[in-house]
Amino acid sequence: MTESTQRESSLPQVQPPPRQTPTSSAPGAPAGGLPNQPRATGATRPTEAQKPHLDTTSDKATAAFIRRTLCSHNVLLGNGEKGRNTPRPIEEVLPPLTSSNEVDLQLYAIIAVIIKEFVQTWYSKITPDHVFVNEVIQIIAHCTRGLEQRLRKVDLEALLLDEIPELVESHLSAFRLAKQQATYEHSLVSDPRIVYHTLHPHPALSPVPTESVPSSAVEQRENESAWRQLLVQGALAVLLPTEDLENGCLRALVAEIFAEMILGNGISDKACEGWLLWEGITRIAEVLQDSPKENESQSNSLKPEQTLNRLERYGLLSTPRHDPSMAAKPLLTKDRRHDNAPMTLSVVFWAVIQFAFWACTAIRATIVAVATSSSLPSRSLIGTSGQSPVEASRQSRLPLAELPASRRLLASTKRPIVSMKLWSCASRLVELDLRMPWLSGFISMLHWGVLAGPGRVGDTDGLLDRFLSSTMQIRVLNPAFIPILLRTIRATLFPNNALGPPRKPPSAEEAKVIKRRCAATLLGLLPARVALGFFATDSAAAQLWQVEELLDCLDDAYLNKHLIFGIVELFIVRLVPELGERGVQELMEERLG
């Protein structure tokens, strides 16, 4: 605690300016005497351009920002906090949001930005009182603690690997069928939106907005706004404490913040745009690229013409200047340029060595998986029990007959990971059954073998099933990744802890460039020989065009809303299962009598 307070006290540049600083007594001071502007006197004071750039995402800067925004008036501090030389830690000043201080720090930073930009801007003009802000913080803390307890009971494996991919697969099927139906010459309905909405209806997106009926767009927006309010009001009816639920004004304000600012402006208006989804996919794909050390070592050995960016390497933005005759031919990567090189003895030798190394690595991974699978916990004890890892590991060694009846029932109802919709969704996305039907059939045979073959290693709680579940828990569902994810979201949505300037939507040509960059990034993840076999061509431009065709399913923002809204509803129903059983009015009457 002493070390953290010393670090925070050593950052005067992120603390608010002292109140006793003179504003206009110095000669040559700027009009208004703003304390954050450089003065003419004091030659040693650096100007704004000379000040070092502050990392607003660091823990020290984040804690200072939270303290300035939520604790500046000492309403929540109390106990002599105003006279302390070293500030108290955030977890001792504000109510806990979750069971993790690291997660609370990032959540409070997001809350501080929202309150600063959307509450204090108008509330401070009405009254200097800060009791209302404190009430909002207390309500949010109560809701987040309740959501954390509910999240412990959610089967995140099934949610991420089965239920969400099922929605994506349904979206792909409806989109491609609607696109195919719209191309028929004698089709009664030529608008793909109408065909898609008929196959995949949603009450918030009815009726389908069309140019022939201008009122349909207004009616659809009204239905969407009503859906957002209904969803948020239903969640608040379950999560809010009774005394806060009875306060209609406070409930309406909190519902407005979540329904309009988060669901409306954040998800409906922005997250459903195709170009934004392509940019998100591009960033994820770039993270999956080679490590920085490998890139640095490779960049030192590359020639200048090989250091072009991905689009230039595929010949999409410019052509090689050193050879005018190649202007119309796409520039291939280094691996593709040597695909047709003659096979020599040394090439064959190193190829055999490489395949032998891969085989040894695969055998070693298989042996390690078999040796450690017996100590892995049962899937019936992960994600839905809230038990400690020690208790889960102890019960996982018990025979199935000795487990509690609830555990036996849960283990029997869980779907094997190899049978979840993630695999069929990936196959549908890349059109594997059309491009490589032999590979699709071979994978189906392997799937049947691991489920019904010797040992049934792929069945629920089988050897392979436990190994995949353990890998999922370590690589994806690791709680240590949550603060990093929240920090990234805050830096993206609120650069420098403030609302960034509104981004101008890209034009049609700019959207095509974003889509092409996304396709090129995804294509860069595939080895050259794999891309050659999958796309059945060695032309980089032809491969890129095929990847762009796969990304067409995110073109229309209205169709994307069907998918995004379905995912939002799924998350809320899993966290608040009462909404799937009773209506909002029934829940309100039950809570308020």
> What oligomeric state do the depicted chains represent?
single chain
Low-confidence stretches: 1-52, 74-80, 291-341, 384-401
How many E strands? 0
Whole-angstrom Rg:
29 Å
Work out the strand percent: under 5%
Helix content: 55-70%
* Major sheet description: none
Structure class: mainly alpha
What does this structure look like?
This protein is mostly helical and 593 residues long. Among the domains are: 112 residues, no CATH class; 150 residues, no CATH class. It is built from 28 helices and no strands. InterPro entries: Phox_assoc, SortingNexin/PXDomain-PKLike. Its main location: cytoplasm. It is found in: Cytoplasm. This is PXA domain-containing protein.
Layout of SSEs?
Blueprint lengths: L1 H8 L49 H12 L19 H4 L7 H18 L1 H7 L4 H21 L4 H27 L9 H8 L14 H26 L2 H4 L2 H24 L2 H14 L4 H10 L8 H4 L20 H4 L7 H29 L15 H8 L8 H9 L7 H9 L2 H4 L1 H16 L10 H13 L5 H13 L14 H17 L3 H8 L4 H11 L6 H19 L8 H9 L1
Helix pairs in contact: 2-4, 4-23, 7-8, 7-19, 7-27, 9-11, 9-28, 12-24, 16-22, 24-26
Structural key phrases:
single chain, 593 residues, mainly alpha, 28 helices, globular, disordered N terminus, phosphatidylinositol binding, Phox_assoc, cytoplasm, SortingNexin/PXDomain-PKLike, PXA domain-containing protein
